[in-house]
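In the previous chapter we treated chains in isolation. Here, by contrast, the input contains two separate entities that must be folded as one system, with a combined length of 560 residues.
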Amino acid sequence: MTVVKGEFGRDDEDDVKDGTVEAPGAADPYVPSPRRLERERYRRVRARRATAIAALSTLVTGAALYLLVVSAPGWPRTKETFFDPAYAREAFPKVLEGLWLNLRLLLVCGAAVLVLGMLIAVARTLRGPVFFPLRVLAAAYTDFFRGLPLIINLMIVVLGVPALRLQGITVDPVLLGGTALTLTYSAYVAEVFRAGIESVHPSQRAAARSLGLTNRQALRFVVLPQAVRRQVPPLLNDLVSLQKDTGLVSIGGAVDAVRAADIVVGRSLNYTPYIVAGLVFVALTIPMTRFTDWVTARTDRRRAQGGTT
Amino acid sequence: MSDDVPVLRMESVRKTFGGSVVLRDVDLEVAPHTVTALIGASGSGKSTLLRCAGLLEDVDDGAIWLDGEEITDPRADRDAVRRRIGVVFQAYNLFPHMTVLENITLAPRRVHRVPRARAEQQARELLERLGLGARAGEYPDRLSGGQQQRAAIARALAVRPRLLLLDEITAALDPELVGEVLDVVRDLKGDGMTMLLATHEMGFAREVADQVCFLDSGAVLERGTAEQVFGDPRQDRTRRFLRRIVEAGRL
């Protein structure tokens, strides 16, 4: 039997299994009816046509965009200043070198942000009068750092803290910049987590409490797992955003990918290195997005009751 | 539509999930203004049969007709077909972010383009009939199970479906609330609504069904009038199933 790939394809493979691996004694000598074969033939034709249309439409759109850009009056000049292969080759290794700093910052700050954000979110959902000050502090923290522009936060921390000339406090712009990033992003992520916690239906908490779980256990084992899963896309959004903002630590003098490109630009007065740096950042986020999509889709499949609609 | 064309007809319907065959060679006819009850153990394929009829699942093989038009044809407009079929689910599946009235008027307003005022008026009449007149503005989570299920029935009825599919609609309710939901179904039968229902309420099936089908491992093992299937079952399996039900005190 032929297997139709695409929208309706998955059932067919199962049937091949049916015919051959069926439990012994199950008198099910199933042979696909002509009706089914005809239906599959029709779907195959449809799938093929859909692919053809998609390809054609992509081709036309691509050609139109290309012509639009290339026929622009300033194109030759733009090409020279933004898409010069020689400068791209020169800048690429330096940008990559700088990117290593961005990556390290992303990993360390990302982990710190997730932990801190989660703590703040949980602090905001704690009940009981004892926790009142904690709730207020957590709320004040998110209000303040979500509202404070990141660039100002960075300048205060990266330039202001060393100006205090405190003993034992670092003046390393990367460490200070990372701290500022963590402060701001924890506030964002805390709100994402809180929204997730509040989106879990109260009946789930009721079911958990009915089993004798304490409020904390209910939060830990029932509410948070559902909340976090639901918030993966917005969390990823913030993570990507953080990754780009790691470039801002360059205001303290650290050399990251953007700053590396900047240096080449300053020397050559050609903007190609910026394009290179931009594309490198884009290339970094795409696998991350695809990976989370894949994880989410897989868990969805394992839970769904089946069905096409 | 002439009365001799069945509202729903299934012919050798087959459905598999993974490696297991959930429906095999199912034939079924539901005549206009009649009620067909599907009985059988859990996992015998009742719900899947209903989901296939409501085009919530694709059949693997075989065909299904609604009013003589094949709905399993890949060329058929599936949304148009679903517009003519009402489904009531075991878990109600009301939309928690809408009031009862909004739940009921959603499809009339957005799908059938009924003006808001008229849709709301019709919804209120429907709710009044189902004894929920005072609950129109409430959110589903504030209602009892029986009230939620009646609201779900109202939602399915609001588009005046040709066929109503009821999937163990009382399974999540306690006996006291079962009664109020079954009363609604009884009324609907009085109005001549064509219904296909999966149920564990044998007494109710016996009373309300014109045709009873006993499903066993995905096949229709026995079918007939309620008197035939309950009074004088021919198949051994049916007899055993009914005996178990009687022992459990459910008939």
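Chain A touches chain B through 22 residues (CB under 8 Å). The mean pLDDT of chain A is 85. Compare these points with the single-chain example from earlier in the chapter.
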